[in-house]
Design goal:
This protein is α/β, with parallel strands linked by helices. It has 15 helices and six strands. The protein has a domain of 244 residues: Rossmann fold.
């Protein structure tokens, strides 16, 4: 299977013209310059990303990619692998955190099933693009074959295409897969050259002994993988179906000029893969929150990212990005609808 074009071709850049106009407007709104803090730069960034003097992030598309991990055979999760399939049903039924947030925020939500050990029936809102029941155990062998990587990347790219066809102006990707913090930590270790002890965390709630064991598992997988830092090689060797799909979605959105609001550790690891492959994709990323997973800080630093929120969240699903969405809407509303000093007849800064 061929790789999607967005993996092979650098994405377009944001509009410097619209960002510059937005920066000028921020200086003449009825407020002291800089008084809205990060919301001001957020509005400027969104103006450049949307190519508009009146930026908006609506409509919003949320896509949760789900897949199981063969590394669960090593005992790296506090929850059984059956939970992945069960949570897909929970998403469809509206009972998951991201389901609640999507409804609350008026965003469309779809779930993409890439392969689970447990059976997933036909459900409204669930797209079945099954690659295999699970990845292979990355301790023993590469987690994905080349064809499986291509299939997962293509699934993500297709989600970006559906979002573009629906006229969406913001994409939020989410993850579901028992064992995926192990895979994300291994990916980040391989790409950044960092030790597992620094990046491996509790995931689903492991105790100290469990985290130590999980770090040893990642260490074994890294020893098998070797020193290759090529994005495609690392993704195949240590990734997951949902992580590869997220990387494909990020690159697909960048190629189609859709900003991406990045969730926590798992999605950021996928973003790291995407940006390593196409550095220009970084321009299309806004980082929602700082995960409580210890590895997230290193990934954020590598991506030169300052997240909007730090709430101690580590659920995944795209939930942290969903919680941050109102900040983007607020930034746009303030930028678009505040009066200028001239419009309001308010005196500007003295001496100017």
């Amino acid at each position: 299977m061929a790789l999607p074009q967005s993996w092979l071709t650098p994405p377009p850049g944001p509009s410097g013209k619209h960002a510059a106009i937005a920066a000028e407007r921020q200086q003449v709104l009825t407020k002291p310059p800089g008084s809205l803090g990060q919301l001001e730069q957020l509005a400027i960034t969104l103006a450049g990303l949307t190519g508009s003097n009146a930026p908006t992030v609506d409509p919003v598309r949320m896509v949760v990619f789900a897949g199981d991990h063969g590394v669960c055979a090593e005992g790296v999760s506090a929850f059984p692998q059956a939970v992945t399939a069960q949570m897909i049903a929970n998403f469809a039924a509206g009972g998951a955190a991201i389901s609640v947030m999507a409804k609350q925020l008026g965003a469309s939500l779809e779930v993409v099933n890439l392969g689970t050990v447990g059976e997933v029936p036909e459900l409204d809102g669930v797209i079945h693009q099954v690659i295999a029941p699970s990845t292979a155990n990355m301790v023993e062998t590469p987690a994905l074959s080349p064809d499986q990587v291509a299939a997962a990347l293509t699934s993500g790219d297709q989600a970006a295409e559906r979002s573009a066809n629906a006229g969406c102006r913001l994409f939020i990707g989410g993850d579901m897969g028992i064992g995926n913090t192990t895979s994300a930590a291994a990916l980040a270790c391989a790409l950044l050259g960092l030790p597992p002890e620094r990046l491996v965390g509790p995931g689903t709630g492991l105790n100290r002994e469990g985290v130590t064991h999980k770090a040893r598992v990642v260490e074994k997988a890294l020893a098998r993988h070797g020193n290759d830092r090529d994005a495609l090689s690392v993704l195949a060797s240590l990734g997951g179906f949902e992580i590869a799909a997220l990387a494909g979605a990020i690159l697909g959105c960048a190629a189609r000029r859709i900003p991406v609001l990045v969730d926590g550790f798992i999605v950021s690891a996928a973003a790291l893969v995407a940006v390593q492959r196409q550095p220009g994709a970084r321009d299309w990323l806004i980082f929602a929150h700082r995960s409580a997973e210890p590895g997230h800080d290193a990934v954020l630093e590598a991506l030169d990212a300052t997240p909007l929120l730090d709430l101690g969240m580590r659920l995944g699903e795209g939930s942290g990005a969903a919680v941050a969405l109102p900040l983007l809407r607020a930034a746009c509303a303030l930028h678009n609808h505040m009066a200028s000093f001239a419009d309001a007849g308010v005196s500007g800064k003295s001496g100017e």
